[in-house]
Amino acid sequence: MAVAWGVLIVSGCLETLWATALEASRNFHRLGPSLLFLAALACSMAGLSYAVSHIPLGTAYAVWVGIGAVGTAVYGMAALGEPATVARLLCLLLIVAGVVGLKLIP
């Protein structure tokens, strides 16, 4: 079970990678980011597929999406100059709290 959780966390991080690579691909007009997008997407989906064979689907999917959403939003704020308002940061903390809650509550 611990391996499945580790794979799920890595897969969530890969979701952040493919989302940022998608933006960097400029609508698939840049080869490097486009290839990175495809590779990260495939690995992320493969990891999610493995995880759902050991973790309940709803929990695994919510954790995967939560990691990807928070990671992508943080990347946008840190690297792309998106606003990092208190309200946005609090909303991200709510997502993290939900993900942690899904992990801790049986």
TrEMBL record:
Query: What's the domain of life for this entry?
Result: Bacteria
Q: Does the keyword Membrane apply?
A: yes
Q: Where, subcellularly, is it found?
A: Cell membrane
Per UniProt, the keywords (alphabetical) are: Cell membrane, Membrane, Transmembrane, Transmembrane helix, Transport
Q: Which InterPro entries match?
A: EmrE-like, Small_drug/metabolite_transptr, Small_multidrug_res
Instruction: Give the principal location in a single coarse category.
Output: membrane
Q: Where are the transmembrane segments?
A: 35-53, 60-80, 86-105
Keyword Ligase in the entry? The reply is no
Q: Which Pfam families match?
A: Multi_Drug_Res
Xref: Gene3D superfamilies? 1.10.3730.20
Q: How does it sit in the membrane?
A: Multi-pass membrane protein
Q: PANTHER family from the xrefs?
A: GUANIDINIUM EXPORTER (PTHR30561:SF0), SMR FAMILY PROTON-DEPENDENT DRUG EFFLUX TRANSPORTER SUGE (PTHR30561)
Q: Which family does it belong to?
A: Belongs to the drug/metabolite transporter (DMT) superfamily. Small multidrug resistance (SMR) (TC 2.A.7.1) family.
Q: What is this protein called?
A: Quaternary ammonium compound efflux SMR transporter SugE
Query: In which organism is this protein found?
Result: Streptomyces axinellae
Q: Which gene encodes it?
A: sugE
